[in-house]
User: Fold this.
Amino acid sequence: MKKTISLLALLLIIGISCNQEKKKEQTLEKAPETTQKEVKKEHKDCKDVHWGYGDNEEGPENWKNLCDGFSACGGKAQSPIDIRTDIAVATDELKPIEFHYGKSGVDIINNGHTVQFNVSGENTAKIKNKNYKLLQFHYHTLSEHTVDGKHYPMEVHLVQKNNDKDYAVIGVFFKEGKENALLKKYLDKFPKKKGTYKADESFDLNQLLPADKSYYHYKGSLTTPPCSEIVSWYVMKEPIEASKEQIEKFSEILHNNYRPVQPLNGRKIYKFEEK
Assistant:
C-alpha cells in the first residue's frame, strides 16, 4: 500500500513539473511579441509632437528621440554649423548665384517657431545650372550659423526648392547698423504669437540680399525637425543691417529660436569670392 501511495505521489510531482515547463515555454514564446508591441508604443507619430528650443525634453538635444520621423536630427550631416574661415576651401566649381528675384505679395505667419514670409510669384535662383524656386523666408535670433565661433544677432533663411530631395537654402546674417527698410515696414505687423498678417501690396525680395554675393557653401540639413539632410547651404559672407531697436524688438518675438551648431563630421566647407 505504501509503495502504491509513493508511486502516485511521484507521478503527481512529475505531472506538475511538466505543466510548469510547458507554461515557461509558452511564456518564452509570447515574450518577443509583447516586447515588440511595447517598442511600437514608444515610437510616436510626428504629427502632433511638440518641439521647441528650450533646454528640456522638447529641445534640440532631444529632437531625434521625439518620434520616428525626427530621427534624422541625430544624423551626421546636420545644420547649422560653425563656419571656420581657416578651413574653408576655394574651388573653381562654385559660380555666382544667379538671382532672379522680383516682387512678392505680403503673407506673414508666426507658426510658433519663427516669423515666416510665404513668397508668391516666380522668384528663382540658378545654382550649378539648376533652378530653385523661392518658397519662403524666415528669421532666427540669434543667428543659427556662427562664423569662427561667433553669432550674429539675426539670420534670415531663404528656402528654395528644386525637388523634394533637393533644397538650396541661402542664409543671410544681420549686423547692428542702419535701420532695415523691410523690417521698418512690417515689423509692427509681425504676429507676436501664432497668427497671420496679409496685405494687398508687394515688396522687393532683393532687399534681403547683400551687395556682395560672396558665400560659404556646404552640404547639410533643415535646421528644424524633421532635420532632413537634403539641403545645399549657401551662407552669404556679407551681412545686411538692422537697427539695434529692430533687432531687440524682433528678438522679443522669436525668443532665441536658434538650433545650436552641429558637428562637421568630416564635411568640407567651401567658399566663393565675388570678383
The domain at 71-272 is CATH 3.10.200.10 (Carbonic Anhydrase II). The chain has two domains: 1-42, 71-272.
